[in-house]
C-alpha cells in the first residue's frame, strides 16, 4: 500500500510533515474509474476521446480514497479534501471524505510516483522487453522462465507504455524478486523514459520491423528507438539481442552492459537453435546449442517462428544463471496461452485467434503455421496499420503467402484489398476471395463458408477490432 506521504515525496522530493500523511494509505492505483475498489487512488488522465477528470466523482462513488487531478478540478470541486503537494496538510483528515491531490500534469505525477516506488525495492531486478514484433509473447515466456527461480511480477496484457508500465511498477512489493516489463514506443525518447522509470538490468530486443514506420519514417529510426533500452542498461547488466536481425545486432555497439548475448538461428550466435519443426497444435521441436552443448526439446509453442521467442527466454534464463532444467520447465509451462489462441468455433471448426495485432512478418508466420494444420485453411486478414512506406509491399507479401496457403480468404479493410489483389495475381480464384467492408460483412461470409474441420486464422491490426469476429464465431462456452 502506498502512503500519502510517499506520493508527496515522489512529486516534490520532500516528505510531507504531518503524521496524517503516514497513516493515509491507498490500496492500489488505477486510471479507469471502473476498476476502482475500496481504498484506490484514481489518476485522472486526459484521453484521446474523454478526460479522466469527468470520472473523479464516479471513482469516489465506487470507493476511491483519493484522486490525482489537475488544478481545473478546483473550478468544480467534488466533496473532497483538496491538497497540493508542497503545501501543508491538516493534522487530521475526515475519514468520510476522499482527497484530491492537485498537480500540474497528472501523467508526469503518475510516472514520478512509479519511479519513486520502483526505487523502494532495489533488490527487485527489472527485465525489459522491446522489439517491433513478439514483445508480449516474449514477455510472457521470459516471465515463465524466470518465475521458476524468482518471485516474478510481469506487465499485464499490453501495459507497455508511458501509462501501463508505471501502473505495473506500482504493484511491486517486498516479495518481488524480478519484474518483466514490456516496453513499447511511438516516437524517439519514449523507451528511454520507460527505462528511466523502471531501471532495467536485463534488456531483450526481439527485432526491428516496419511497425510504426508511418510515425518514425525509417527502419533506422525504429532501431534507434528500440536501442534506447540497450543504452539504458547498467554496466553490470545484460543485453539479450536477436543476432539474426542486423539492426538488433548493431545495438551492441551502444551497450554499456558488460554482457551481450546474441541468440538466433545463424551459426555465429552464441545461443542458437536448429532442427526446428512444427508439430501443429502440439507445438514445436527444436535443438538448442550453447557453449558446445546440444539440447533437443519439444515445447508447447505454436509455429516454427516461436523458436526466436524460446531463444530469447532461454537467453534471459542463462543471463540470470539459471539451470537448464529450470529454463526448460519454464518454456514448457507458460503461465497463460501466448498470443495466438486456439479456440473451438461454431460448426466444429477451429479458430486461430491472432487478432491482437499484425505486421507483415507476423502475419506470414501465422499463415505458415496455418499451413501445418490438417483441415481446410481459411484466413480473415485485416489492414496492417502504421506501415508507412512499407504499406503496399507489406500487404502484397502477405497476399503472396496467402495464395500459397489458404483455400478461402476474407480481406477486411481498404489496405487488405492489396492482400486480395496479390493473392488473385498469384493464382487464387476470385470465387475464393471475399472483400469485406466491415466486421459484420466478414462474419456473415464466415457463417456462410464454415464447415466442420475448417481452421480459421483471424489476424489484423488492433485498430481493426477483429476480436469482434472471433467473438461471433467462437463456440459458446469456449
In short:
This protein is α/β, with parallel strands linked by helices and 478 residues long. It has 17 helices and 22 strands.
Structural key phrases:
alpha/beta, UDP-N-acetylmuramoyl-L-alanine:D-glutamate ligase, Protein-Tyrosine Phosphatase, Chain A, 17 helices, nine-stranded mixed sheet, 3 domains, 478 residues, globular, 33% helix
Total helices: the number is: 17
Number of domains: 3
In whole angstroms, the N-to-C terminal distance is: 36 Å
Question: Main beta sheet: strand number and arrangement?
Answer: 9 strands, mixed
Question: Radius of gyration over alpha carbons?
Answer: 24 Å
Question: Would you spell out the secondary-structure blueprint of this structure?
Answer:
Blueprint: E1 2-3, H1 4-12, H2 20-23, E2 25-26, E3 29-30, E4 41-43, H3 56-61, E5 66-69, E6 81-83, E7 99-102, H4 106-119, E8 125-130, H5 135-146, E9 152-154, H6 164-169, E10 178-182, H7 190-198, E11 200-205, H8 213-216, H9 219-232, E12 238-242, H10 246-249, E13 259-264, E14 271-278, E15 284-290, E16 293-299, H11 306-319, H12 324-332, E17 341-345, E18 349-354, H13 360-371, E19 377-382, H14 391-405, E20 408-412, H15 416-425, E21 433-436, H16 439-449, E22 455-459, H17 467-473
Parallel strand pairs: 3-4, 4-5, 5-7, 6-7, 8-10, 8-11, 9-10, 11-12, 12-13, 13-14, 18-22, 19-20, 19-22, 20-21
Antiparallel strand pairs: 1-2, 14-15, 15-16, 17-18
Helix pairs in contact: 1-4, 5-11, 5-12, 7-9, 11-12, 13-14, 14-15, 16-17
Amino acid at each position: 500500500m502506498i502512503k500519502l506521504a510517499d506520493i508527496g515525496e515522489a512529486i516534490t522530493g520532500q516528505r510531507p510533515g504531518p503524521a496524517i500523511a503516514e497513516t493515509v494509505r491507498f490500496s492500489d492505483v488505477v486510471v479507469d474509474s471502473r476498476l476502482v475498489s475500496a481504498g484506490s487512488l484514481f489518476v485522472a488522465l486526459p484521453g484521446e476521446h474523454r478526460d479522466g477528470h469527468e470520472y473523479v466523482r464516479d471513482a469516489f462513488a465506487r470507493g476511491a480514497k483519493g484522486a490525482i487531478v489537475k488544478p481545473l478540478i478546483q473550478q468544480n470541486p467534488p466533496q473532497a479534501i483538496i491538497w497540493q503537494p508542497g503545501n501543508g496538510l491538516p493534522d487530521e483528515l475526515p475519514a468520510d471524505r476522499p482527497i484530491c491531490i492537485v498537480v500540474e500534469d497528472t501523467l508526469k505525477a503518475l510516472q514520478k510516483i512509479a519511479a519513486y516506488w520502483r526505487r523502494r525495492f532495489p533488490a527487485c531486478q527489472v527485465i525489459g522487453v522491446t522489439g517491433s514484433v513478439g514483445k508480449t509473447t516474449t514477455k510472457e515466456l521470459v516471465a515463465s522462465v524466470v518465475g521458476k527461480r524468482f518471485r516474478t511480477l510481469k506487465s499485464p496484457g499490453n501495459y507497455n507504455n508511458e501509462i501501463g508500465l508505471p501502473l505495473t511498477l506500482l504493484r511491486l512489493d517486498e516479495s518481488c524478486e524480478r519484474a518483466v516489463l514490456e516496453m513499447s514506443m511511438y516516437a524517439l525518447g519514449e523507451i528511454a523514459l520507460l527505462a528511466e522509470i523502471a531501471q532495467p538490468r536485463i534488456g531483450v530486443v526481439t527485432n526491428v520491423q516496419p511497425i510504426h514506420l508511418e510515425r518514425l519514417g525509417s527502419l533506422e529510426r525504429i532501431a534507434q528507438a528500440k536501442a534506447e533500452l540497450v543504452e539504458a542498461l547498467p554496466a553490470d547488466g545484460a543485453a539479450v539481442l536477436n543476432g539474426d536481425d542486423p539492426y538488433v545486432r548493431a545495438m551492441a555497439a551502444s551497450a554499456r552492459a558488460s554482457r551481450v548475448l546474441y541468440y538466433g538461428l545463424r551459426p555465429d550466435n552464441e545461443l542458437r537453435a536448429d532442427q526446428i519443426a512444427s508439430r501443429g497444435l502440439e507445438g514445436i521441436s527444436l535443438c538448442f546449442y550453447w557453449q558446445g552443448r546440444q539440447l533437443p526439446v519439444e515445447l508447447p509453442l505454436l509455429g516454427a517462428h516461436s523458436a526466436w521467442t524460446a531463444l530469447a527466454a532461454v537467453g534471459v534464463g542463462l543471463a540470470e544463471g539459471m539451470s537448464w532444467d529450470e529454463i526448460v520447465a519454464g518454456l514448457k509451462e507458460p503461465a497463460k496461452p501466448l498470443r495466438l489462441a486456439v479456440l473451438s468455433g461454431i460448426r466444429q471448426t477451429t479458430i486461430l485467434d491472432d487478432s491482437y495485432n499484425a505486421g507483415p512478418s507476423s502475419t506470414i508466420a501465422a499463415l505458415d503455421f496455418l499451413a501445418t494444420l490438417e483441415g481446410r485453411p481459411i484466413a480473415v486478414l485485416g489492414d496492417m496499420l502504421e506501415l508507412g512506406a512499407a504499406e503496399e509491399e507489406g500487404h502484397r507479401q502477405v497476399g503472396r503467402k496467402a495464395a500459397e496457403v489458404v483455400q478461402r480468404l476474407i480481406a477486411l479493410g481498404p489496405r487488405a484489398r492489396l492482400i486480395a489483389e496479390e493473392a488473385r495475381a498469384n493464382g487464387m480464384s476470385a470465387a475464393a476471395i471475399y472483400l469485406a467492408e466491415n466486421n459484420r460483412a466478414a462474419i456473415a461470409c464466415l457463417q456462410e463458408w464454415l464447415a466442420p474441420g475448417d481452421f480459421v486464422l483471424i489476424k489484423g491490426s488492433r485498430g481493426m477490432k477483429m476480436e469482434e469476429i472471433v467473438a461471433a464465431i467462437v463456440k459458446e462456452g469456449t
